[in-house]
Design goal:
The protein is of the alpha+beta class. Helix content is about 30%, strand content about 25%. The two termini are about 15 Å apart.
Amino acid sequence: MERVLIVARMKESDIDTVAQIWGESDATELPHLVGVQRRSLFHFQGLYFQLIEAEQDLNPRIDAVRGNPLWQDVNQKLADHIKPYDPATWRGPRDAMANRFYSWQAS
């Protein structure tokens, strides 16, 4: 299982709107096109966390759908609510992905 954690900024007042935007997007074929099997959203003190779980590496599939109208639609809707953690280095989703440095699993 591949897990990706995206970190950004979000106002607490936008929680319901962002959840609705993702709910609408997840009801389309976009998650299947990207390979997303599970998405969880978290908020903590002005920060937004999106945990994505997939069978395989998401980056090539994200690159492949960037021109898709469904991808563009969800990103346009989220733009008013989700802001890059560091706008100076933001170019795309990869720039918001946290780097896993430890993992453990019960046997």
